[in-house]
Design a protein that fits this description.
globular, eight-stranded mixed sheet, alpha/beta, binds magnesium ion, TIM Barrel, binds ligand LVD5IZTE, four-stranded antiparallel sheet, 37% helix
Length: 390
């Protein structure tokens, strides 16, 4: 079997979007005074879809949601020529070929996200070629069902947050991730607002459910040092991305400082990046995203590294490419899960581009042992709401 063609298309959502609310999620732009839409960096309304076809007609699907047009250019100009004519079963060789030929300017960020998209499509082909789901090629079924946590609860009106939490508590979820709305530039009022929101959600879900707290890189080390003791009474399952991804020593200090587990990884890349995080004991929960970190080839290695370090892997964002990694290792106890909503931040777009995403039931997800590859097809129901560029 040989790779015959690589097609990368950018799907830009032109449909209805939920307008962002101020302070709906702390983020790295909060450190700057606002000169316009500080939330612009926070909307992922484009997605690159990669279709790789082999000489015997198998088509593998990959995807990347970071800087989609740049990712497409990297795939078209640099990566596709490296894999066309090659055997997809040589996936380690092909991964190294893509990684080493872009090392001078790649390694992390959009270049590695582009490599991830090609790698996902290659693994989709591998599964389809032997009529097996990808997780069966990685270690098989390690769970009867995948426990998942409900993820949204963006900061807004506290009553609305409580109603949202109640809705999904009633659907059987026993783990919830909420977003802080305030950080260092919002002073003591912001601290109070942050604590009020955690209190409000805890009042609904109680203490028999897990509660995860998301900062999305919107705090800094000093602010996180001051917030951690105030948060301990709420017994969070983890505090996520309290500082920017480059502040690895900051992560390590916070991890030493508090009993609250510090999580991160959705903005880290490759086995090498996670080796650094683990060597420095920077995080207690690893959250790579398989469509960023280096694809399945890289994520599979990171799973093994985390198993050796007894650090749980709970991949970012849910989505099928991550569910196969969670299903196939005991190192990954659960998945993140965003139900399908109207398009807001962009995590939701996955449902509008692809069909096949499992829907959670009673707080669990299921994968199909008989569905080959990643188990996704392109969703044709919303094509008229996308601007698609070849
Ligand atoms: O789901 C997450 O962990 C994210 O970081 C996504 C973004 O919506 C902020 O929470
Ligand atoms: Mg996050």
């Amino acid at each position: 079997m040989k790779i015959q063609s690589v097609r990368a298309r950018v799907f830009e959502w032109k449909g209805k979007t939920v307008p962002p609310q101020a302070n709906f999620c702390s983020n790295a732009m909060d450190a700057l005074y606002d000169r316009g839409d500080s939330m612009k960096t926070f909307r992922f309304h484009g997605w690159t879809v990669v279709e790789i076809e082999t000489d015997d007609g198998i088509v593998g699907l990959g995807n990347v949601a970071l800087a989609p047009h740049i990712a497409k250019a990297i795939i078209d100009q640099y990566l596709a020529p490296l894999v066309v004519g090659q055997d997809p079963w040589d996936y380690e060789y092909l991964w190294q070929r893509m990684y080493r030929s872009t090392l001078a300017w790649g390694r992390k960020g959009v270049a590695m996200a582009a490599i991830s998209a090609v790698d996902l499509a290659i693994w989709d082909i591998l599964g389809k070629s032997v009529n097996k789901p990808v997780f069966k090629l990685l270690g098989g079924r390690t769970k009867e069902r995948i426990p998942c946590y409900y993820s949204k609860l963006y900061r807004g009106d506290l009553k609305a947050m409580q109603e949202e939490a109640q809705t999904f508590l009633d659907q059987g979820f026993t783990a919830f991730k909420m977003r802080f709305g305030y950080g260092p530039n919002h002073g003591t009022r912001g601290v109070a607002e942050n604590l009020k929101s955690v209190q409000a959600v805890r009042e609904v879900i109680g203490y028999e459910s897990d509660l995860m707290l998301e900062c999305y890189m919107g705090w800094d080390l000093d602010y996180a040092r001051r917030m951690l003791p105030k948060l301990e009474k709420f017994e969070p399952r983890w505090l996520e991305e309290p500082v920017i991804a480059d502040d690895v020593d900051g992560y390590a200090e916070l991890s030493r400082l508090s009993a609250i587990p510090i999580s991160g990884g959705e903005h880290e890349f490759t086995l090498h990046g996670f080796r650094q995080l683990l060597d420095k004991k920077a995080v207690s929960v690893v959250q790579y995203d398989t469509n960023r970190v280096g694809g399945i080839t890289a994520a599979h290695k990171i799973n093994a590294l985390c198993e050796a370090h007894s650090i749980p892997v709970i991949p970012h964002a849910g989505q099928m490419h991550n569910y196969h990694l969670t299903m196939s290792t005991l190192a990954s106890p659960m998945s993140e899960y965003f139900p399908q909503f109207d398009v807001e931040v962009g995590n939701e777009l996955f449902y509008y581009i692809f069909k096949g995403e499992p829907v959670a039931k009673d707080g669990f997800l299921q994968l199909d042992d008989t569905l080959p590859g990643l188990g996704l097809t392109l969703n044709t129901d919303y094509l008229d709401q996308f601007q698609i560029s070849e």
